[in-house]
Specification:
heterodimer; A: about 260 residues; alpha/beta; Rossmann fold; 2 domains; 5-stranded parallel β-sheet; 11 helices; globular; B: about 475 residues; 4-stranded mixed β-sheet; about 40% helix; disordered N terminus
Chain lengths: ~260, ~475
């Protein structure tokens, strides 16, 4: 008997689609992936069409409408393993910046007939509504990490995804510390690795695409920013980026508001 | 009995297309609408951020064309700094813009559209995608995947990652180019050119096979809008705005992008979150215009690379004397002409020794309190306008995105297809497929992204004159 190929489904909420495109970006692996698994369609979202069950569901995007809430609950039921991919799904994404503002004011200014916009007050991570088996970080995610996570779950093992900080990647690359040597504020010490320390390689401070690392000491980092001459506004903006609503970054940014 | 139907926005489908079709008493289509229901609120939540952050933040609008937002935002930043960026920085930004065209146009044709054409509209939707194409014609799919990869490789080589690179900045770019990187990219050119030509050859056979369908795919006159170079050549990074009517007449030319808001207004409708830009002198909705490949190849006087120019002349000849090519199906053709151009032009830039000059960034502080950036994203002209205070803190943001500018034309296309194919009170799979293909001519961001490895999620509803739901179909 030919073993059945595992079924993978991809679901999208509010996002830029960059994370699911990372799957297509794995060109060299795409032909192999196509042979190893069944990529179920990006079927949309009504009760009737979520034709599960799926072995793995990848969820991109944040939850922003009442309909999203219903939909993500349906999706959870249909997926044996649910993995969120990217900053939107794991932390609410860049659109979570609106969580600090009045969303009604948003829609009024941008749209002539705001009463037709049906939206929740806040942009929330998937994990605040349903149980998530694994959260893959990044804005966008790293395609090699995605392949590793898929591989791990398909083989019933734990994914090898580092939870240490970006600093480790700078050291591994031999990149000179932008903060110690250049006095440039850098979120690296509090941010999870995964990007390959991209910005410090450009002599620029990290801006936190991969969200908070495990147990980040954000207040010590803020103190250091202050010593470098950063204002409260600068510090607030630094933590309030692509992972603004991730708890550690949210608290730190609020402390400087 | 009233034929006007107002749609209560109850069944929101976040980020996906919804189409409603309205019939009169006799069951004839009176209207059809293409709805977009995703709201993220970028223009508003950027207020209070720093001008320097905007390239990074606005990249996140779109994972398919983040590079277009990056470059356009950096250009708005140049304007606020009031600097001329180093010539090498401009060439590098041009190169990455072409790379964006290559990867996006290749994605549109090979990954998204060709499965319809090569596997057939009526083939099983479950396999009518890039994976189905891999199963059917592995070599063709492999070449398409590699051509897109070439575009993505340029972006990765320059910007260290493919999606959301922090590489461009107000005043230039962050890192000079290197000989070894240039040579690596140059080695790709012969294969890329060959694949672009293969795509054109394949499309032409599709034109023959679908000749009875094609006349219904958004075939109507409209304005065409885009940038052209100072000498009238096809442009992608800079230049001035040209506006052509459906008869092929240039009705406005050499418009400074800084005055775009005098030319274009944005209307809103209660049934879609996507705004409806229009050409102000003609008013709304008569000022409907199209942007993107079809517009650009129509409005330019010539293309300054030999193979693409040869194709452009064949394209122009299709329209007949002094006409613009008005059929939206030929977006595909124009897109592939641009794909070939982008490969040829990238080769020319890579061979330019100045591209290796290490001076790639001009530094300055805030010198103007307002800045505009414009460029040609794969799907059309993209505008970013920022108002800042003296510290560079954003006071107001206006973004006009290509897909929105095609909104009126996409609606017109859906209406045309509905009128041609809807007969009676049922929506069949065949109708759904054709409407989907009609929308995909425009390669709108919302759909090609959600449909990246599968089919476009669609929700079509059919209403009678009393707004009773006759039929609906989702997938």
């Amino acid at each position: 008997m030919v073993p059945k190929k595992p079924k993978i489904a991809v679901f999208k909420f509010a996002s830029c689609d960059g994370c699911q495109l990372s799957l297509l970006d794995a060109e060299d692996e795409l032909l192999l992936v196509a042979g190893a698994v069944e990529i179920a369609n990006f079927l949309e979202a009504s009760r009737r069409v979520v034709k599960g069950p799926y072995d793995i569901g990848l969820v991109e995007g944040s939850i922003t409408t009442p309909h999203d809430v219903e939909r993500v609950r349906e999706i959870r039921k249909e997926c044996r393993v649910l993995i969120t991919i990217g900053a939107c799904a794991t932390a609410g994404g860049i659109q979570a910046l609106r969580n600090w503002k009045d969303v009604k004011e948003f829609t009024r200014i941008v749209y002539a007939s705001p009463e037709y916009i049906s939206t929740l007050d806040r942009s929330m991570p998937v994990g605040s509504y349903v149980h998530v088996d694994f959260e893959l970080r990044g804005c966008p995610i790293n395609k090699y990490q995605l392949l590793e996570v898929l591989n791990a779950f398909l083989n019933n093992r734990k994914p090898t995804i580092p939870t240490y900080s970006v600093c480790m990647e700078c050291k591994l690359k031999g990149t000179v510390c932008v903060m110690v040597a250049g006095g440039t504020p850098c979120l690296g010490p509090a941010t999870q690795a995964g990007c390959g320390a991209l910005c410090p390689s450009y002599a620029r401070g990290c801006y936190g695409c991969f969200g908070p690392m495990e147990n980040p000491n954000t207040s010590a980092l803020s103190r250091h920013f202050t010593e470098l001459g950063e204002s409260n506004l600068d510090i607030m903006l630094a933590f309030r980026g692509f992972n603004a609503y991730a708890e550690a970054f949210r608290k730190e940014s609020d402390a400087h508001e | 009995m009233s034929k006007t139907v107002t749609i209560a926005p109850v069944t929101r489908i976040e980020g996906h297309a919804k189409i409603t079709i309205h019939l009169d008493d006799k069951g004839t289509v009176t209207d059809a609408r293409f709805h977009v229901n995703e709201f993220r609120g970028f223009e508003k939540f950027c207020e209070g951020r720093l001008m320097w952050e905007m390239a990074g933040i606005t990249s996140r609008i779109c994972g398919i064309c983040p590079t277009s937002h990056l470059i356009t935002s950096a250009k708005a930043g140049d304007d606020i700094l009031a600097v001329a960026i180093p010539p090498t920085a401009e060439k590098l930004r041009r190169l990455i813009t072409l790379a964006q065209w290559i990867q996006s146009h290749a994605l549109s044709f090979f990954h998204l559209s060709s499965p319809d054409f090569l596997l057939g509209f009526d083939s099983d939707p479950a396999t009518r995608n890039i994976f189905g194409l891999i199963a059917k014609d592995k070599e063709f799919a492999r070449r398409g995947i590699r051509l897109r990869k070439f575009g993505q490789e340029i972006i990765e080589v320059l910007g260290s990652r493919r999606i959301h690179t922090p590489w461009a900045v107000a005043g230039g770019v962050r890192e000079p180019f290197e000989v070894s990187k240039r040579d690596y990219l140059l080695a790709w050119i012969p294969e890329a050119r060959e694949t672009a030509l293969l795509a054109l050859k394949t499309l032409k056979s599709i034109h023959e096979n679908f000749s009875t369908d094609i006349p219904n795919y958004g075939n109507f006159r409209s304005l065409f809008v885009g940038l052209v170079a100072p000498d009238g050549a096809l442009e992608y990074y800079d230049g001035t705005i040209r506006i052509m009517d459906g008869g092929g007449n240039i009705i406005a030319d050499k418009i400074d992008p800084h005055s775009y808001s005098d030319q274009f207004g944005e209307a809103t409708e209660d049934w879609s979150y996507l705004k409806f830009p229009y050409y102000k002198p003609l008013g709304y909705p008569q000022g409907m215009y199209r942007v993107g490949p079809l517009a650009r190849v129509n409005i330019c006087d010539y293309i300054d690379t030999p193979l693409a120019e040869e194709e452009r002349q064949i394209f122009k000849a299709m329209a007949g004397q002094a006409e613009a090519v008005n059929n939206s199906f030929y977006y595909h053709y124009a897109r592939l002409i641009e794909l070939l151009f982008a490969v040829e032009k990238a080769e020319a830039l890579l061979n330019d020794p100045e591209i290796l000059n290490p001076h790639v960034r001009s530094k300055a502080m805030i010198n103007r309190l307002m800045g505009i950036g414009v460029s040609e994203a794969p799907r059309g002209t993209l505008f970013h306008q920022y108002w800042v205070d003296e510290n560079g803190v954003l006071q107001k943001v206006n973004l006009i995105i290509a897909t929105a500018q095609n909104n009126l034309a996409m609606n017109r296309t859906v209406r045309q297809l509905a009128m041609r194919y809807i007969d009676g009170n049922k929506i069949t799979d065949g109708i759904l497929n054709r409407i989907e293909a009609g929308i995909r001519c425009f390669d709108p961001c919302l759909s090609c992204s959600t449909h990246a490895a599968g089919q476009m999620p669609l929700h079509v509803q059919l209403f009678d004159a009393d707004h009773r739901l006759l039929d609906e179909i989702r997938r």
